[in-house]
Amino acid sequence: MGTPVDPVDPAIMAALSAAADAPGYPLTMGSVALRGAMRAYLTRTSAAVGDFGVIPTVGSKELVAWLPTFLGLGAGDTVVIPEVCYPTYEVGAMLAGADVLRADSPPGVPAALVWINSPGNPHGRVTDLDEMRAWVAWARGCGAVLASDECYLSLPWEQTPISVLDPAVNDGDLTGLLAVQSLSKRSNLAGYRAGLIAGDPAIVRELLTIRKHAGLIVPDPVQAAMVAALGDEAHVEVQRERYRARRVIMRDGLEKAGFRIEHSTAGLYLWATRDEPGWDTTAWLADLGILVVPGAFYGPAGESFVRIALTASDERIAAAAERLG
Ligand SMILES: Cc1ncc(COP(=O)(O)O)c(C=O)c1O
């Protein structure tokens, strides 16, 4: 249903256990080694340049849920989220007491914070360079913070997603811009809780201060595991190839069974419809022993779709495709 099932790379496990003797408090900003690893990784994979701030997070979900609150948003502020999206964006706005506006392109009204997510959960839609630039221009125009959730950046298929940290998107100016990334899917570390936030140094500094006091600190052994994971692309490539193969099999099976696949050009999911209520599709698939999430879970505009995750073993993906046939 979306949780990684493949093994953690042995070198990452070894780094975790080698750091197990950790009697002292860890650094909220990350160890010297982790800070260096995060900077090198973002420079290499996200084209980040210059003076960007970066801190580790306890997975990215806590950051998504608390960012509006930590930015000081509240009643009367608007948080823009995608029409169909990861539910925690809305939960985070609600925790802060802010209003939510769903929009897939810059709205005609100002806001305090906007979430974009490319490749998107649940639909694998990629926000292209022109769209990213339009969001940045709009956010700058109204003084909004733009948070780009890039959890699935390591999974390009027909389209290659771009980070908001890339100067092609931001013209070398990170003011008001934040990238949220995660090792849950990139490195199968969902169980470790390992993510990061990077971007506007002034905002990241402010978040660091709050996070120190709130106790949002990544444990030292996990920091050591992050150093190993961020410094290596070979295990990421192995995982990418697993998902690539599963995606071809599942897509083929769904299309042969009469499904239409929309978007899904990158990321971890297939967004599929039979042009009927997604709950009906979910029930039909459940009878075949295939578990999916009804699209309505991600927003009203998703109600005739279902989300199919590629996070099942090769055997189960093959069995699911066969049952569809
Ligand atoms: C779009 C998106 N953002 C953030 C997360 C949170 O992931 P994690 O907390 O494991 O980093 C998820 C998890 O599925 C997600 O789909």
TrEMBL record:
Domain Aminotransferase class I/classII large: 17-324
Keyword check for Acetylation: no
Entry keyword annotation includes Transport: no
Gene3D superfamilies, sorted: Aspartate Aminotransferase, domain 1, Type I PLP-dependent aspartate aminotransferase-like (Major domain)
Annotated EC: 2.6.1.-
Root EC class: transferase
Database matches in Pfam families: Aminotran_1_2
InterPro entries for the chain: Aminotransferase_I/II_large, LL-DAP_aminotransferase, NHTrfase_class1_PyrdxlP-BS, OxyQ, PyrdxlP-dep_Trfase, PyrdxlP-dep_Trfase_major, PyrdxlP-dep_Trfase_small
Keywords: Aminotransferase, Transferase
Cofactor dependence: pyridoxal 5'-phosphate
Domain of life (superkingdom): Bacteria
GO molecular function: pyridoxal phosphate binding; transaminase activity
Family: Belongs to the class-I pyridoxal-phosphate-dependent aminotransferase family.
Protein's recorded name: Aminotransferase
